[in-house]
Amino acid sequence: MEISHDTEGLPVKIAIRKPLDGHEHLRRDSMLKMVGPMVAKRFRAAIVMPNTVPPITTESQVCGYLKEIWQATGPDFLPLMTLYLTDTLEPSHVEALVGVGTVKGIKYYPRGLTTNSDSGVKNPSSLWTSGTRPYECLQALAEHGGVLLLHAADGFDENGVELDPFDQEKHFIEHTLPRIRDAHPKLKISVEHLSTKWGVEYLLKHGGPLLGCSLTAQHLLLDRRDWLRGGFHPQRFWWPIIQPTEHREALRVLAKADKPFVWLGSDSAPHPVEKKRADCCAGGVLMAHAGIELYVEAFENMGALDDRFERFASINGARFYGLGDSDETIELVREEWTVRHSPHIADGGTSKEVIPFRLGEKIRWKLVA
Ligand code: DOR
Ligand code: ZN
Predict the structure, then answer these.
(1) Dihedral (Cα; 144, 147, 152, 156), 10-degree rounding
(2) Which of 47, 84, 182, 362 is 20 to 30 A from 288 in CA distance terms?
(3) Could you tell me which of 212, 326, 349, 234 has the C-alpha nearest to residue 280?
(4) Is 327 an annotated catalytic residue?
(5) List of E strands, the chain
(6) Residue among 23, 24, 25 whose CB has most ligand 1 atoms within 8 A, to mutate
């Protein structure tokens, strides 16, 4: 990473290899047209989440989606596709698609615990129980070197009692993840958007070439106080929900620790405003308009805006997913700007607002176009 300072020693400009976004909801149609260029400007590649409606489960869906993404981003951007793990996903599809590299991994969604997770796996035990479709899919995935991406949350404990949402990740890390790893010892696993100190402890102990995690800027920047200060802030609501400060601090420790198994995954997840201002507010917020800038801010706040940042943003995730280091670079300058406008998308003849993270607020770093 190249870094320039002003006369007072304040960093004012950085250049990093063009990063990889390890977790991106590009959506489809007009939302994709809006988000795609934002992402391609900042990232060379992204792991594309499959929880579109309908979810991505077949070869023809993957190919159709890829084509649509390239129309929105241009051909230089590299979409790294994933399949949505359902209770009926075909192991032969996994074999075929991961085997030739069209698909990089499979995303596990616990049914009902996050946005567009209705088709997710009903019973997490099918991940480690031989004879079930999800188990066979993970076997095929491991066989072909693909990655299992985990939405690391459980809805219920062993007695069938519904878990508190603040304990969903804890339970998964303590009960579900070890069982998956035991059942599939050769499988590469990425714990997505790690959000708790329990997850951090586990990763620090077990992280390595077969087990890594992505971190979002929002989980590094905010804690539960920011979410509920003066009332509920829908633009700070996503799954996994933000935890109390001690968890944010643990995530910062992990981000600063310069581990090769920790990388950037923005979890930009845009929704039209009516889904956010609904009786049941949808989890997920548009981050792509500042998809790298927010991380620079987070790393600067942590006192880690140095080579560690480039490894986190541009090297670690890329290597985990089998990519070489990028020759392209991007530059950012210290130049405060205000998120002034909500993008609009065309939907069924009407124009819909998509409120971006930090609307009306300042962002400290700016991408050099
Ligand atoms: O907040 C979230 N939104 N978390 C997820 O896991 C899914 C995402 C979405 O698709 O909107
Ligand atoms: Zn996500």
Answers:
(1) -10
(2) 84
(3) 234
(4) no
(5) 2-5, 11-17, 20-24, 45-48, 78-84, 103-108, 147-150, 188-191, 211-215, 262-264, 329-338, 344-347, 350-353, 362-367
(6) 25
Cβ of 283 below 6 Å from ligand 1: yes
Q: Each residue of 94-129: pLDDT tens digit?
A: 999 999 999 999 999 999 999 999 999 999 999 999
Whether the CB-CB separation of 346 and 329 falls below 8 Å is answered with no
Any ligand 1 atom below 6 A from CB of 238: yes
pLDDT digits (tens, 9 = 90+) for 306-337: 999 999 999 999 999 999 999 999 999 999 99
How many angstroms is it from 339 CA to the middle of ligand 2? 22
284 alpha carbon, closest ligand: 1
* Domain extents in the chain: 16-331
Closest ligand, as measured to the CA of 52: 1
Q: Which residue's alpha carbon is at the smallest distance from atom 3 of ligand 1?
A: 284
- Burial category of 38 from C-beta neighbours within 10 Å (exposed 0-12, middle 13-18, buried 19 and up): buried
The CA 115 to ligand 2 mean position distance, Å, reads 9
Q: Residues 226, 220: contact at Cβ < 8 Å?
A: no
Q: Does domain 16-331 have CATH number 3.30.450.40?
A: no
Nearest CA to ligand 1 atom 2: 284
Which residue in 164, 182, 267, 307 is the catalytic one?
Answer: 267
Q: Which of 31, 117, 238, 271 to mutate to test the pocket of ligand 1 (most atoms within 8 A of CB)?
A: 238
Residue 218, classed as helix, strand or coil, is helix
- C-alpha 182 – ligand 2 centre gap (Å): 25
Q: Which pLDDT does position 47 carry in this prediction?
A: 98
Residue 284, ligand 1, Cβ within 6 A: yes
Q: Report the mean per-residue pLDDT for the chain.
A: 97
Of 311, 292, 345, give the one whose Cα is nearest residue 39: 292
Rounded to the nearest whole angstrom, what is the distance from the C-alpha of residue 123 to the centroid of ligand 2?
A: 20
Percent of the chain with pLDDT over 70: 100
| Cβ atoms 246, 201 nearer than 8 A | no
Q: What are phi and psi of 206, to 5 degrees?
A: -115, -5
